Known about the structure:
Blueprint: H1 2-9, H2 20-27, E1 33-37, E2 42-44, E3 52-66, E4 72-78, E5 83-84, E6 99-112, H3 113-122, H4 124-148, H5 153-168, E7 172-174, H6 179-186, H7 190-202, E8 206-209, E9 212-215, H8 218-223
Antiparallel strand pairs: 1-6, 2-6, 3-4, 3-5, 3-6, 7-9, 8-9
Helix pairs in contact: 1-2, 3-4, 6-7
Amino acid sequence: MLDLLFKKLKKVELFSDYNEDQIKRILNTIKYKVNKYNDKDIIALQGDRVKGIGVILKGEVYVNKIYEDGRQLQVKKMVFGELIGHALVFADTNFYTSTLISHGDSEVMFVPNEGIADMCMNNRSIFNNLVRILSNQVVYLSNRLKLSSLGTIRKKLISYLINEYEKQNSQVLEIPISRKKMAEFFGVTRPALSNEMIKMKKDGLIDYKDNIIEIINISKLKNEI
Length: 225
């Protein structure tokens, strides 16, 4: 049972620089627990205090925003390897901002605050990995905030494509996320995104197939912003 845990954690970004034996030695020095959940079980309630970092080992976790009138909005879906509570665990105001619900059977390993601190102090790569994960999340949220200020779907998509063009140094872009994920990133529906891409193709701005998008005219594209 424990051997399976170490094998799973080897595939998690937080422990990516360690083999199974090293992970075993690290975990033997801290307190942790693995919780199992059934479908629709609540993992954490909005407003609960964050007491540690969770690592999803199995299944899916839905992040739902609950409003005062009882309405629920699914903010995102989390899968194997993703971390729970890492952005809040050492914050001055460390409360879950959404409710976490198990979708199907799931397993989550929780490491308390002091365990995270000990792991980071004694294992430089875990510290580096955690900082990188947090930094990437800050960049992601910053980009989402920037896109939300652009207004139209076309402007959001163009801004995203220009950013990828500068990163990949090519007008033929390999998009690292699915259309569904891209739509979620823009805060729009997938059909709305697809319709805008069709219009941009007709306008001679882009061409696309599967996860490849080609910028036909980068100057014309930039002028659209």
